Amino acid sequence: MSSHWQLEPIQIGSNFMAMTGVFHDTQFLDYLRGSGGVVEYVEPNQVYQVTRAIPRSELHVSAAPNWGLARISHRFNTDLSSYSFNDNAGQGIDVYVLDSGIKIGHSDFGGRAFTEINFVSNESEDDLGGHGTHVAGKIGGKRHGVAKGANLHAVKILDKSGMGTTSVLVQALSHIIDVAIPGKSLINLSLSGPKSQILNDVLAEVTETHNIPIIVSAGNLGSDACEYSPSSSHNVFTVGATDEKDQVPSYSDTGKCVSLYAPGSHIESAWIGADDATQLLDGTR
């Protein structure tokens, strides 16, 4: 029976258990929904995708490689020509980047990027789309990143087109709680999809029970972030985008679910194609 439905159990810690499968019989699904609490809820295995980027053709002070780094090093938007930063920021911290992978050998990562695990069965561990590398560069690149000393762990859950599913995302989170060190680890999710109770419940389990902070993008649909997951979760830090004038651009999702806004327009970061490749992108990544 289990092989007929392709059942796979998923457990996060001791408080969350789920089952994925392929069910063609709607009557059986109705039976599960009416099981008197044995099954709390049933929902589709949702499709998630990268928050689609919009392409464009001790303290140190230096010229910033992009305006966003200069902006976050100043309280007010008065001087975007200088950039104050700590070379050791993020040292000893493990950042798990759940995305399309990371170009491990890129010069911006300085040997601090690692392949953690690949959940995309029909692709190599390499970043074939570029999104994950760009995100990792902004997190911990020695030139383009904020936390220049952080360790970057590539958890590949999105294929080269930037697509993944709830079940794969939940499996990845389950892996992370098994290997991550609470208090020295965090998770980045720069993706968005339909609002999902199962995903939001898992995020709550990871943050509350296992003490691993999760940073997510608000989304790039110019809509209400509360209508999507993971941005609708109350247990994550949801980040929207600002531009050079401290304005929220039209593409950024907004609303009460957004925890904070950060530079997101016209941001240069690491890219695939070469070990020193860069790309300018817009978005709430």
Automatic annotation (TrEMBL):
Q: Specify the domain of life of the species encoding this protein.
A: Eukaryota
Q: Which InterPro entries match?
A: PCSK9_ProteinaseK-like, Peptidase_S8/S53_dom, Peptidase_S8/S53_dom_sf, Peptidase_S8_Asp-AS, Peptidase_S8_His-AS, Peptidase_S8_subtilisin-like, Peptidase_S8_subtilisin-rel
**Ranges for the Peptidase S8/S53 domain?**
90-268
Q: Which GO biological process annotations does it have? A: proteolysis
User: Which controlled-vocabulary keywords does the entry list?
Assistant: Hydrolase, Protease, Serine protease
GO CC terms:
extracellular space
**Which GO molecular function entries does the Swiss-Prot or TrEMBL record give?**
serine-type endopeptidase activity
Q: What family does this belong to? A: Belongs to the peptidase S8 family.
* Name assigned to this protein: Peptidase S8/S53 domain-containing protein
> What's the gene?
ABSGL_13480.1 scaffold 14165
